[in-house]
Amino acid sequence: MPAVDKLLLEEALQDSPQTRSLLSVFEEDAGTLTDYTNQLLQAMQRVYGAQNEMCLATQQLSKQLLAYEKQNFALGKGDEEVISTLHYFSKVVDEVR
Questions:
Q1: Of 10, 33, 36, 93, which sits most exposed with the smallest number of CB within 10 A?
Q2: What is the DSSP string of 1-30?
Q3: Which domain holds residue 44?
Q4: Structural contact between residues 88 and 57, judged by C-beta atoms closer than 8 angstroms
C-alpha cells in the first residue's frame, strides 16, 4: 500500500491543489469503506436472521417429535420404543440449538 501524505489541519484550511487532491483521495476511501461496511452489515444481518430461523425451526421440530406420543393411532399401542427414540431425538435437537 503506497504511503499517503498526511493532511495537516493547517494545510486543510488552505485551498490548494495538493489539499484538494488529498481530500479527494480520503473522500474516495471513505466512500469505499462505507460501501464495504454496509455490505458487511447486510451479510451479518442475514446470518442473524438465519440463526433466528434455525432456532425457531429446531424448537418446532423438538415439539413435534414430543407430540408423537399424544397421537391416537389405532395400531399404535406398544410404541414405547418409538416414543423413547423420539424423546431422545428431541433432546438431541434441543442441545443443537
A1: 10
A2: --------HHHHTS--HHHHHHHHHHHHHH
A3: 17-96
A4: no
Residue 4 counted as domain residue? no
pTM: 0.65
**DSSP at 73:** -
Contact in structure between 89 and 65 (CB atoms under 8 Å): yes
Range in 29-33, 48-52, 69-73 with the lowest mean pLDDT = 69-73
Cell of residue 49, nine digits: 436472521
Segment (H or E) for 81: helix 80-96
d(CA 51, CA 92): 18
Give the three cell numbers for residue 76: 399404535
**Residue 93 identity (one-letter amino acid):** V
Sign of the C-alpha dihedral computed for residues 74, 79, 82 and 83 taken in this order: positive
Please give the mean pLDDT across all residues of the chain.
Answer: 87
